[in-house]
Amino acid sequence: MAARGTAQRPNGAVQGKICQFKLVLLGESAVGKSSLVLRFVKGQFHEYQESTIGAAFLTQTVCLDDTTVKFEIWDTAGQERYHSLAPMYYRGAQAAIVVYDITNQDTFGRAKTWVKELQRQASPNIVIALAGNKADLSSKRMVEYEDAQSYSEDNGLLFMETSAKTAMNVNDIFLAIAKKLPKSDNASAGPAVGRQPRGVDLRETNEPHQGGCCK
Amino acid sequence: MDKEYDYVILGTGLKECILSGLLSVSGRKVLHMDRNDFYGGESASMHPLDKLFEKFDDPEGTKDSFGNGRDWNVDLVPKFLMADGGLVKLLVHTGVTRYMQFKQIEGSFVYYRGGTIYKVPADDKEALMSGLMGIFEKRRFRAFLVFVLNYSFDDPTTWDGMDPKTSTMEDVYSKFGLGKDTQDFTGHAIALYLDDEYMTQPCEEPLRRIKLYYDSLSRYGKSPYLYPLYGLGELPQGFARLSAVYGGIYMLNKPVDEIVMENGTVCGVKSEGEVVKTKAVIGDPSYFPERVTKVGQVVRCICILSNPIPNTQDSSSCQLIIPQNQVNRKSDIYVCSMSHTNSVTAKDYYLAIVSTTVETSDPLAELQPGLQLLGTIQKKFLWVSDQFEPQDDVKDSKVFISKSYDATTHFETVCEDIMNMYEQITGEKFDPSSISLADVDVES
């Protein structure tokens, strides 16, 4: 993956108009967070997607007119299940998608809690999108489109109903986020333009390692 | 929560989180619980600053002082990573380095009798310029350093009569005619020994440590130490995420009522009236008060400063070692200092954490030689922590308990404990090649 922490790119990620952003997913278990990412990144959908296992990050790029936006996408790895997400998860995130399931009212309530949590914990300039997933199951709908939309307007969120299964609005929601993210140094507000790597890269001078650790 | 797990892990301190990560990656089913509502236990960084005041029962303390409380991440147990050390290797092998960012610590200093602070020479040339030694001693030290750096444990022609197994470090010092003060600085500020017991031991380990110091130094230049942005509390979180990515289940805010035993072997953990079955339990000493022995105490004093430590070239982060002999003690006093550049304080503030192994009934007085080097201290938090080790009879019990975090200022002893535990737990040595980065790194 493209170098987080690769040393000394002056002024962060603006580099040949490629901007890199950390995007985190939030939402109750089984609302389809991983499915949305899998659809967006790999174009795949699995009806019986296992609980999240084995994905540290996924990356995907979106091309706008003159800029390539590269998302470094963090999935919760199941740590949301018992309310045990680490503060590290939000750290430095420039965008978030809060997901709920349109067939389950509780998940919409939980989504609102996640939005509050982001407003409290994450950086003040974070771009938040609300995704009402499983829109293909509208016959079982429990959350009205208008309710979610007016909530989003009140809280300054992007909002779309999505379906990881049919791919409806999946690319669109990432694209909308990409458009809303600040992409130039001159953007006066906001401290961070893209991901700003600081510090040293531990891997940089690491030779292939044979011996045991710590000895 | 009704399933059976291979391991239930109690406490989300660094050691427990690393073990959790390694076990999950190798396919074991792990349930990881912590009685606190935050990650890290004693390896947490207090955030925001109010948490630190609460921890020390001074909730009224902060108010408007010390800038924005949310800028603070204050370690309870200060340590630095050796750039070429065991923890860095683990971070790289497991890919956890990608969740975090690190910066170099700017300087490494040593205190000498009479109150002078010297930079630890970064190489043989700096050694020749340093005011640390007289002119003839410098040459002797340089010869010693060249010898050590060329020393190869596999190649007896480089040994020059100093056998790694049979010659002591004392022998090596006297071979080069190094004076007492130079020995002090070598053993304590470079080989990072807490006391002088190493002198009469075979020279292999001390030589390895000196090499580790210089190998670490050569990776980034200014000092051998690295430190994560936002404090050490990021480390357990990073390894916990690794574990979770591989299926480890995390539960914070989960009180543990009882370790359930059957015929002397653990079979479950009871929490909030519910028993989880498990084949083994791993945890920090605080979860097993009747299975650990107190072996000593460490005293630590967290100090908030509005200036860098005087006489450290205005370093915004540094380590300062006060070797035991220089202040007539048995164990060294350590000072770790970090600041806004490490994202652990508000702007224009500095943290200095002074620590040592307790030798008397007045721990605060023992820290005085360190505290008096700090200039004006804005606020102090004193903390004496008991050091526990597991009792020997835990082998059949399948209850694996980590040691408390010691007074050393780096993670090498932490890694040793983890590797020993891993071997005890799984019956096999940890093999870093069993983890391939490709497994961890999913990319489109």
TrEMBL record, chain A:
Residue span of region Disordered: 184-215
Gene Ontology annotations for the cellular component aspect, listed alphabetically: early endosome
Top-level taxon of the source organism: Eukaryota
Single biological process term from Gene Ontology: protein transport
Top enzyme category: hydrolase
Subcellular location: Early endosome
GO molecular function, one term: G protein activity
CDD domains for this protein: Rab5_related (cd01860)
Comp. bias (Basic and acidic residues): 198-207
E.C. numbers: 3.6.5.2
A Pfam family that the UniProt record links to this protein: Ras
Keyword GTP-binding in record: yes
Reactions this protein catalyses: GTP + H2O = GDP + phosphate + H(+)
Keyword terms, alphabetized: Endosome, GTP-binding, Hydrolase, Lipoprotein, Nucleotide-binding, Prenylation, Protein transport, Transport
Alphabetized NCBIfam families for the sequence: small_GTP
Family the UniProt entry places it in: Belongs to the small GTPase superfamily. Rab family.
The name this protein goes by in its record: small monomeric GTPase
Organism this protein belongs to: Desmophyllum pertusum
From TrEMBL, chain B:
Chief subcellular location: cytoplasm
Keywords on record: Cytoplasm, GTPase activation
Highest taxon in the source lineage: Eukaryota
Compartments in which it is found: Cytoplasm
Assigned protein family: Belongs to the Rab GDI family.
Described purpose of this protein according to its UniProt entry: Regulates the GDP/GTP exchange reaction of most RAB proteins by inhibiting the dissociation of GDP from them, and the subsequent binding of GTP.
Protein name: Rab GDP dissociation inhibitor
